[in-house]
Amino acid sequence: MNTRGREVAFRRILVALDASTPSLAALDAAAAVAAKWEAELLGLFVEDINLLQLAALPFTREVGFPSAIQRPIEPQDIERRLRAQARLSKQALARVAGRFNLRWSFRTERGQIVTQLLEVAREADLIVLGLRGRKVAGRMPRGAIGQALMSAASQSLLLMPEDMRIEPPLLVIYDGTPSSRQALAVALRQAQDGLIVLLAA
């Protein structure tokens, strides 16, 4: 978790949703954190403007799987798919928020994904983003969106790999920096059954 030099108090948690497995894992994690902090969940679905612009090009094709049949991409098909993903994302948010008895809201924005996330994140204290992929050489995947948010977001950031959950014991690496103190404070509040603190030598 990335924290930036201030006291931690999560009142509103932004979770990026797209109905994918990683985003649903991130939603579960965001709800678990929101329940501990009595925070509101804000779900955001971004209609990717790059995808819509690509679909409008006359030479764009999609290849079916497993048939390998090529067919033109119709912009209205992409619009319909995006609306369906947004609807599924909102339903998932409502279901998970209901399970945790959380206040929640949902927004759909159109634009560049990172730009929209950063814009809406101004209203939040924590951003939760699901990550696709597995560890490589002991390192967690970060993805382009995760990397961009790590560089640009002023809010705390939780990147959740799709195959992980927030469960005890929690592990915090503490090196005495303000960020590590804040991460420790968050972990102490989040932990129920166990917290492991590694002290940097």
UniProtKB/TrEMBL annotation:
InterPro entries: Universal_stress_UspA (IPR006015), UspA (IPR006016). Residues 10-159 form the UspA domain. Residues 1-25 form the signal peptide. The keyword Signal applies. The keyword Translocase does not apply. Keywords: Signal. Belongs to the universal stress protein A family. This is UspA domain-containing protein. It comes from Candidatus Muproteobacteria bacterium RBG_16_64_11.
